[in-house]
Amino acid sequence: MVKVVGRAVGFAAVICVASGLRIEVDWDSISASHAGGAQSFAVDMNPFAPSANTATSLSVRQTCARIDVNGVQNADEDGVDIVLVDVTASQFPIQVLGFEYHLSYPEAHLTVQAYDQNFFLTATAGSSLFDGSEPVPDTDGNNEWSGIAMDTADNTHETGSGVLHRVTFGADQGAAPGLYTVGFVNGMNGHADPNNNGFVPDNLYGGTIAIGTSYCPNTDSDGDGVFDADEAVCGGSVYNAALRPERIDLAGDDDGDTLVNEPLPPGSENNDCDGDGYKGSAENNVYLPSILGDQDSCGWAPTSAPFGIPIGWPADLRGGFELQREQGEHPGPLYLHYPGAKDQYVAG
Ligand SMILES: [Ca+2]
Ligand SMILES: [Ca+2]
Ligand SMILES: [Ca+2]
Ligand SMILES: [Ca+2]
């Protein structure tokens, strides 16, 4: 029989096992010393991309996943309105007897529904897992969920990197749209070695879950060059690369509404609808009186006035240098502005 006799009260974690093994760690008191600790504990919002994490290997970490609360599996979901999230540890330099971490997340919108513990700590044959994690579904409302485990077998202790737990997050019915952080509670994370010494990770990396009409920042799910958040506002399609916000430099109907070269939706000025790295208001500032700059991705600036025709940025400006007109002049001289260097006259 094993039991948790007391844990996570304030800052101390105490796990007691009847066999005589015992972890009793005050993570805060050892937080100044990282020697022996993992390089990091982290949250990977997509355990399967760009390739799958395993019990003892980690792919590149993904920082955000999106749930669309609609009763069907869509967005970045791994089931209906749920995402699977890996809690990972990178580079344990010494053997791991057990680990503990405390995730922070908003229980008003999300629920830890389940977790799979058959990963790092059971990678070695003969491992015997003691599970001290908080019960699931986690509905106690304290905005935390703790994962705690220990391998009670002898001589089966792992080192290196891997998945500690694969945790199922579900969006609650009625969850408010927004970007929500899944992080770690400071001073509550670490591991113990077979001699019951405690160690804390050097770094803690959380992640983000986007719910409802919110989208993961800087994410282009369909790979068409327009970020998800911009597609949603500009009239494109987040998950269909064949549909994008209407463009004037591309033939035909781009957004699927049967209209050709129609204006962008009102209110899209604060978004980058053509995916060239500049939002509509910035392009308007340069190309006025034309307000079509954000519908023309890459092209070349005209060599002379008038500037009323719609134009796109020179291709090599994407995400790079700035185009500037002299203040107060529309149309006026147009310059390439190289940070830290002399402006280069373009036109006007
Ligand atoms: Ca859904
Ligand atoms: Ca896109
Ligand atoms: Ca159209
Ligand atoms: Ca743009």
Would you write up a description of this structure?
Helix content is 4%, strand content 34%. It is mostly beta strands and 348 residues long. It has a domain at 27-211: Immunoglobulin-like, CATH 2.60.40.680. The strands form five sheets. Strands 5, 7, 9, 10, 12, 13, 14 and 16 form an eight-stranded mixed β-sheet that branches. The protein has a five-stranded mixed β-sheet with strand order 8-11-6-4-15, with no helix packed on it. Strand 13 and strand 14 (198-199) form a beta hairpin. It is elongated and about 75 Å long. The relative contact order is 0.13. Mean pLDDT is 84; it is low at 1-22 and 315-321. Bound molecules: calcium ion (4 copies). One calcium ion (CA) is lined by residues 220, 222, 224, 226, 231.
Short description:
The chain is mostly beta strands and 348 residues long.
Percent helix range:
under 10%
Count the beta strands: 21
User: Which parts are unreliable, with pLDDT below 50 for 5 consecutive residues or more?
Assistant: 1-22, 315-321
Radius of gyration: 26 Å
Order of helices and strands: EEEEEEEEEEEEEEEEHHEEEEE
Dominant shape = elongated
Structural class from helices and strands? mainly beta
In CATH terms, what is the architecture of the domain at 27-211? Sandwich
Cα-to-Cα separation, first versus last residue: 83 Å
Q: With helices defined by DSSP (H or I, 4 residues minimum), what is the helix count?
A: 2
